[in-house]
Amino acid sequence: MHFEPDKTYHIYNRSNQTVFYNERNYLFFLSKVNKLIKPVSDIIAWCLMPNHFHFLIVANDKSCEFINEKHRPNVQLLSKSIGTVLSSYTKAINKELNQQGKLFSHNTKAKCLNDESNNYNYAITCFHYIHQNPLNAKLCNKVDDWKFSSYHDYAGLRNGSLINKTLAEKIINFDKNNFSTQSFAAISEKKLKMIW
């Protein structure tokens, strides 16, 4: 993963197995994100699902700092932080379940959403996709029912501190008064292809 300051990224990882088994697991993972990723980037949206996660993140100067490690020279701080979250979470789950091995089966992807070739803001598509994801996966009947996403923070159902709402309003330019209605708008396949 390579990051550039002030660019918006869809960061995601999907496993072939369950990675979040219970509420305690979700909250532990979020505590790691709060400790390691939030200090080095701006989180706009997030959603944790039983076998994968999505984050909409804006990189900043701190995100893009290079650090030198013995085994991985010239790695950026945000990449290192994401890797640390995943490896520490994997260790904790393996210990809890008395198992070994990788929990996340694929490399984490980071898709830059700043496409200067057109006037469309793909961050908006990604923002709504992330919040609609549990509903589309039939994990809930209403988006409000899935508590492991930033939807609750934007809908005023929770006052979480993980996201940067001020920056989100600037980048996404959503209507605070009609957020819930906007959140259910259909997303075209063409636009969805641009966030992967």
Shape: globular
Instruction: Could you tell me the CATH topology label.
Output: Alpha-Beta Plaits
Output the number of helix runs.
7
Strand segment tally: 6
* Residue share in helix: 25-40%
- CA-atom Rg in angstroms: 16 Å
Amount of beta strand: 15-25%
Relevant CATH superfamily: Transposase IS200-like
Please describe what this structure looks like.
- With 196 residues, the protein is α+β, with helices and mostly antiparallel strands.
- The protein is 37% helix and 16% strand.
- The chain has a single domain, classed as 2-Layer Sandwich (Alpha-Beta Plaits), CATH 3.30.70.
- It has seven helices and six strands; from the N terminus they run E-H-E-E-E-E-H-E-H-H-H-H-H.
- It has a four-stranded antiparallel sheet.
- The protein is globular, with a radius of gyration of 16 Å.
- The model has no long low-confidence stretch (mean pLDDT 90).
Give a quick set of tags describing it:
Alpha-Beta Plaits, 7 helices, 196 residues, four-stranded antiparallel beta sheet
